[in-house]
Amino acid sequence: MAGVSELESALQMEPAAFKALYSAEKPEPEDENLVFFCQMGKRGFQATQLAQGLGYTGARNYTGAYREWFEKEG
């Protein structure tokens, strides 16, 4: 996915259109593990807020961001 600016329209697509564009199943609003992240944390937080506003109740932000994950796991 390109970024936060594309997220709103992506989450409102029909499932078949989403799969055709992203080669992945569209998440369901009730999915529990819809995790957003970015390098520093701001865009991941914005994406989480946007998804929650669209009814994706399980949307979460990985607060440590990619940088933390990379330092611990990379």
Write the layout of secondary structure elements.
Blueprint lengths: L3 H8 L3 H8 L11 E3 L5 H12 L5 E3 L3 H9 L1
Parallel strand pairs: 1-2
**Overall pLDDT score:** 89
* CA-CA gap between termini: 22 Å
Oligomer: single chain
Structural class: mainly alpha
Main beta sheet strand tally, sense and closure: 2 strands, parallel
The radius of gyration over CA amounts to 13 Å
Question: What is the N-to-C succession of helices and strands?
Answer: HHEHEH
- SS summary, helix count: 4
Q: What helical percentage do the residues reach? A: 40-55%
Determine the strand fraction and express it as a percent band. Answer: 5-15%
Catalogue the unreliable spans.
none
Principal-axis shape equals globular
Name the strands of the widest sheet in spatial order.
1-2
Number of strands: 2
Question: Could you describe the 3D structure shown?
Answer:
It is a single chain. Strand 1, helix 3 and strand 2 (59-61) form a beta-alpha-beta unit. A two-stranded parallel ribbon has the order 1-2. The chain has helices at 4-11, 15-22, 42-53, 65-73; strands at 34-36, 59-61. The chain starts with a helix and ends with a helix. The chain is 50% helix and 8% strand. The protein is globular. With 74 residues, the protein is mainly α. The mean pLDDT is 89. This is Thiosulfate sulfurtransferase/rhodanese-like domain-containing protein 1 isoform X3. Residues 15-74 form the Rhodanese domain. It comes from Galeopterus variegatus. InterPro entries: Rhodanese-like_dom, Rhodanese-like_dom_sf, TSTD1_mml.
